[in-house]
Amino acid sequence: MAEKVTILGRIKQLVKANINDLIDRAEDPQKMIDQLIRDYTNNIVEAETAVAQEIGSLKMAQKDHETNQQAAIQWGEKARLASTRADEARRQGDSQEADRLDNLAKVALKKQIELEQEVKEQEPLLKARENTAQQLREGLTQMKTKLEELKIKRNQLVARQRSAETQNRVTEAMKTINIMDPTSELSRFEESVRKEEALAQGRAELSADSLEAQFAELEASDDELEIEQRLAQLKSENK
User: Fold this and answer.
1) CB burial class (10 A; 0-12, 13-18, 19+) of residue 29?
2) Buried b (16+ CB within 10 A) or exposed e, 181-211
3) What would the pLDDT profile of 18-57 be if each residue is shown by its tens digit?
4) Angle at 37 between CA 36 and CA 43, to 5 degrees
């Protein structure tokens, strides 16, 4: 019985445990949940064995109790039968047989009283064992419920952790391609392209300036030639 009380105490302790508070105060919530799952699983296995043993013992005790009750009734019937036969023998003048039967009735009544006393003594013990078995049953059910809650919390925690890790990886990846970050590879590449474009544009403009200068020289040469021709014509007219 002491072993059952010890197991019942552990069950009550686990059932009353504030799981959320334990998890919140843990440095590593996932490890805490895994440890709680192991504790609950091990205690459930032990409690199931204890409950099965207690229920089996209770059934046997109840059967013995019922047997004693029936035996007490039967001894009472035997006492009544012996007493009746004794009265009949006494009416028939056989006092010796009557005394013998009355003694048998007394023996039967003694057995009946002993059994009734045993039945009476068994009743509070049976009640206590029934209460213990019921508490073990209820505690076992509550522990199984909490175990399922723990498994759900663990799965939720693992999912949240994986989601956070994925989000962190995405955030880190985004940093490497941030076009607004002057230190990023993409920004440096863009700056290099812009410099090349500026250089090409400058060269194009220089090339255009050189070509225009050459045409300007040609135009200037033509003007000088026309001036010389017109001067020669004037001189020719003056002769």
Assistant:
1) middle
2) eeeeeeeeeeeeeeeeeeeeeeeeeeeeeee
3) 666 666 666 677 777 788 888 888 888 888 888 888 889 8
4) 85
Select, from the ranges 1-5, 36-40, 69-73, 163-167, the one with the highest average predicted confidence (pLDDT): 69-73
How far is CA 98 from each of CA 91, 107, 131, rounded to the nearest angstrom? 9, 14, 49
Using one digit for the tens of pLDDT, what is the confidence trace for 102-117?
999 999 999 999 999 9
In this prediction the pTM is 0.53
Side chain identity at 154, as an amino acid letter?
A: R
Residues 30 and 161: their CA atoms lie apart, in Å, by 10
| Integer Rg of the chain from CA | 56
Residue 7 structure tokens: 């197991």
CA distance 236 to 239: 6
Burial of 40 (0-12, 13-18, 19+ CB in 10 A): buried
Interhelix angle 2-16/29-91, nearest 10 degrees: 140
Integer CA distances (angstroms), 97 to 75, 77, 104, in order: 20, 19, 11
Both tokens of 163, joined, read 């989601």
Sequential DSSP letters for 107-149: HHHHHHHHHHHHHHHHHHHHHHHHHHHHHHHHHHHHHHHHHHH
Q: How confident is the model at residue 2 (pLDDT cuts 50, 70, 90)?
A: very low
